Amino acid sequence: MPRVEGNSMNQPATILRTGRKFDQVLEGARDVFMADGFEGASVDDIARAAGVSKATLYSYFPDKRLLFMEVARNECARQACDAVDMVETCCTPHEALTVAARQILSVILSDFGQKMFRICVAEADRFPDLGRQFYESGPMVVRARVKEYLEQATERGELKIEDFDLAADQLAELCKADLFPRMVFNIDTEFSEAECERVISGAVETFLARFGA
Predict the structure, then answer these.
(1) Which residue, 6, 130, 156, 179, has fewest beta-carbon neighbours within 10 Å?
(2) Could you tell me the pLDDT band of residue 45, with boundaries at 50, 70 and 90?
């Protein structure tokens, strides 16, 4: 039987996304990964947190890497859908981008976002593909939804953008100003609503100054 503890980052494997215990496995794995990191998470702990047997865990995820990536994909896809749903209820680009920026910053500063970032950095030397695969499964999902909105707003004549990939990245980077480096270097671990709104407002105003129609 393949071991979930396996370190191979390149072996092909499949994920069974059906069955009543699939969500239990994801939730349990999320809790353990957040508490112990990727390398520190054990099969026994994940199975115990999920309330399933190790055999059930193996049947869903034959590789711990796959389980980690599925946790990241599931969480980021949910956050991306939440962001777009909120954006689509807005009217003006300023309102829509404010909602998007607030969601982006919320993800960046969330306990999940911080811990996933630190896990990927910590495992970069041993598992160089982990960061890339996390980015593709997580942040790229959010980026794609933001890019989709920018394309639609440009088609409506509300924005003036030629390079949508770069513009989506620039919006995300503007949302990291001040707070993200303070968080990464553990200068501050919590931020007030006023601090967050200051960054959000600055990000949107700067973005619209560049891309407003």
Answers:
(1) 156
(2) very high
**Residue 152 neighbours by CB distance under 10 Å:** 14
**What are 7's two structure tokens?**
């370190």
Minimal CA–CA distance to 117: which of 186, 165, 50, 48? Answer: 186
Task: State how far the Cα of 87 lies from the Cα of 108, in Å rounded to an integer.
Answer: 18
Amino acid symbol at 85: D
Q: What are the pLDDT digits (tens) for 46-80?
A: 999 999 999 999 989 988 888 988 887 777 666 66
What's the distance, CA 198 to chain centroid?
A: 22
Q: Are 42 and 7 in contact (CB under 8 A)?
A: no
8 Å CB contact between 213 and 159: yes
Residue listed under structure tokens 């030397």: 125
